[in-house]
Amino acid sequence: MTSLTYTDGVPAVDHHSHAGYVRPGQRIAGLDAYERENALGHVEGNVHHDDYQRYMALEESGKDEEAQALAESIGVPALVAASLRFQSTTVHARALRDGARALYGDHPEAELVEMSRQARADDFPGLYDRALHLSGTAGVLTDIPEIDSEAWPHRRYKPIARIDPYLYPFGHPRWQGRGSDTPRFRRIFSHVLDRQLERAGIALPGTLGEYEDFVLSSLRRRRSEGFVGLKIASAYVRPLSFQRVGRAEAEAAWAALAGGPREVPEAAHRVLSDHLVFAILEWATAEGMPVQIHTGFGHAEPGLRVATADPLLLEPLLADPALNRLKVILIHGGFPYSSHLTALAHAYGNVHLDFSWMPYLHHHVVGRVLEEWLEFLPADRVMYGTDTGSPELHVSATERARAALDGVLAEGVGSRLWSTSQACWLAERVLHRNLCDVYEVGL
Ligand SMILES: [Zn+2]
């Protein structure tokens, strides 16, 4: 890092990370896995829909030989190779390599891939610690279902619990859309719910009331284990337009899903998840438990509907009088709805914003978004985050976030918007203080 005026030496606390998270069935891989995953969108957009679904089903069930044979026959390797070449000019590719060089030294691509794989296999927590140290990160909030607090000490790695697994106790209507992303989110949600039921030592309760008791006691237990906040990732599986529903309507949806025919209308799933979101968030409000909400675009493969991830769809929830003191953080910069976030945080004093994910996907845009947010909003609203479980991307995202923030602050001082001391103060607010205040945690 060179010539940072306002952010140099200011400790960072990452508001949205996935440090330590391994998806069910995921294998240890090197840093090339990130670009290979991003290549799936290119593959999906160039092979027959049914072939793609069959290929991904084989991949995900671990049937390597069959998956490989099908991949060859439908041309997957050539499509992945083409995608990797086209991705080479993206900020993501640059950030991945910059982070790898910072951690492993200046080596050729193939060696970096192998070194990153080996470093994960040898001591993943140790590698992450090194990434935090290199980037001046004091700690991270990590979105993870469970964490081994021996390997990932709470002082540096504070877990965040998704509430989505609790919202769909009867799964989802059959997936008929493109891609594999939404079905994977659904599978992960139900996997986590099963695990929480198992930890509670019960099967799925028979009534909505009993189920609500289970959900809140499960969240209370996780809180007592060190979870400091909640997250909603449901934009990947449904629209963000959560609506308050009456008790009778929620009971009817539960009954339809619990006892009805196999194909229950999608509306029943929607009503039940609407009801459960409000029940959980009322609890979070009373407990002072902050909630992060995914807004804006999704992964590089079809699934999330960008139009229904518009943060303005959250207005019925944000405007609910019972949730006026809920600590909400709308995450990922909401791209392409960043200005919608600005307007929401302007109107709702309990709403904060983070620009996680942006630093390793965007270059100039990060500065433009920060400029708009910091000029218009009070100093307590904006937080830095990386949105990665990759130590390499953690290092580069944090460096890039510091650089973008520094540029905006320097420009603000240069044009006499802020004094030097205000710029220093903003650097500290964005890099850690706002998070520490909202989550009531120390550095
Ligand atoms: Zn994330």
Automatic annotation (TrEMBL):
Keyword Transferase: no
Keyword Hydrolase: yes
Domain Amidohydrolase-related: 268-387
Keyword terms, alphabetized: Hydrolase
Pfam families: Amidohydro_2
Range of residues in the leader sequence: none
SUPFAM superfamilies assigned to the protein according to its UniProt record, in alphabetical order: Metallo-dependent hydrolases
GO molecular function, one term: hydrolase activity
InterPro entries named in the record: Amidohydro-rel, Metal_Hydrolase
Protein name, UniProt field: Amidohydrolase family protein
